[in-house]
């Protein structure tokens, strides 16, 4: 059952709501990705959240972690990636280019290595833009496919079909109360 349906049932029961329950998706993640999602219980809150997420003006701070092959070039340095991305809807895949090409959109992110393993490294990633499969596409383009992400070059899938990309932290100003809200989800794929 989709998460939105489970949450609607929960809200209907918790608040004894008669009839249909409104629940808008303000921040979602790709199917094989884990982590924080944001839902709005009113259309007004959804509209405000959507505006806030679209502006990317500092009111919203997103942090992701990704497990990628170890590469010493990136250890100890903050790395900023800037590419031009083209989305292929038929393949449900995006492609990164180093220069602008027809139908491309600018994409930017930065990352730091936060933990090293024998064969892997854990990155903390911050998006500056929001493009289709942006983190997956840009990391693969520089030779760092996310563990389990067959679509973008990983050698093996994960047993459950997930990939090692996780939306671990999301902070934003509440659309009604105007107070900072921070949500975190524990990382499910840490290695020992």
Please characterize this protein's 3D structure:
With 192 residues, the protein is of the alpha+beta class. Helices cover 17% and strands 35% of the residues. The chain is built from three helices and ten strands. Strands 2, 4, 5, 6, 7, 8, 9 and 10 form an eight-stranded mixed β-sheet that branches. Strands 1-3 form a two-stranded antiparallel sheet. A hairpin with a 3-residue loop joins strand 7 and strand 8. The longest helix has 13 residues, at 43-55.
Question: Which terms summarize this structure?
Answer:
192 residues, alpha+beta, two-stranded antiparallel ribbon, 3 helices
Describe the SSE topology.
Elements: H1 3-14, E1 24-27, E2 34-35, E3 38-40, H2 43-55, E4 60-69, E5 79-88, E6 93-97, E7 105-116, E8 120-127, H3 134-141, E9 165-173, E10 180-184
Parallel strand pairs: 2-9
Antiparallel strand pairs: 1-3, 4-8, 4-9, 5-6, 5-7, 7-8, 9-10
Number of strand segments: 10
What shape does the CA trace take? globular
Tell me the structural class: alpha+beta
Strand content: 35-45%
Fraction in helix:
10-25%
Task: Please state the CA-atom Rg, rounded to the nearest Å.
Answer: 18 Å
Could you give the order of the helices and strands?
HEEEHEEEEEHEE
| Rounded average pLDDT | 92
Roughly how many Å apart are the termini?
32 Å
Residue ranges: pLDDT <50 for 5 or more in a row?
A: none
Our count of helices gives 3
Q: How would a crystallographer describe the biggest sheet?
A: 8 strands, mixed
């Amino acid at each position: 059952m989709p998460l939105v349906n489970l949450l609607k049932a929960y809200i209907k029961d918790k608040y004894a709501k008669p009839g249909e329950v409104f629940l808008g998706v303000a921040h979602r993640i790709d199917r094989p990705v884990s982590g924080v999602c944001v839902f709005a219980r009113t259309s007004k809150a959804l509209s405000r959240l959507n505006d806030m997420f679209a502006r990317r003006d500092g009111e919203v701070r997103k942090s992701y972690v990704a497990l990628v092959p170890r590469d010493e070039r990136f250890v100890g340095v903050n790395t900023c990636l800037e590419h031009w991305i083209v989305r292929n809807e038929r393949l449900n895949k995006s492609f990164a280019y180093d220069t602008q090409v027809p139908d491309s959109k600018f994409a930017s992110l930065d990352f730091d290595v936060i933990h090293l393993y024998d064969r892997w490294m854990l990155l903390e990633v911050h998006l500056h833009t929001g493009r289709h499969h942006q983190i997956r596409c840009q990391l693969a383009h520089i030779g760092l496919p996310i563990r389990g992400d067959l679509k973008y070059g990983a050698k093996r899938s994960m047993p459950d079909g997930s990939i090692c990309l996780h939306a671990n932290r999301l902070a934003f100003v509440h659309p009604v109360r105007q107070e900072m809200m921070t949500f975190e989800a524990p990382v499910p794929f840490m290695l020992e």
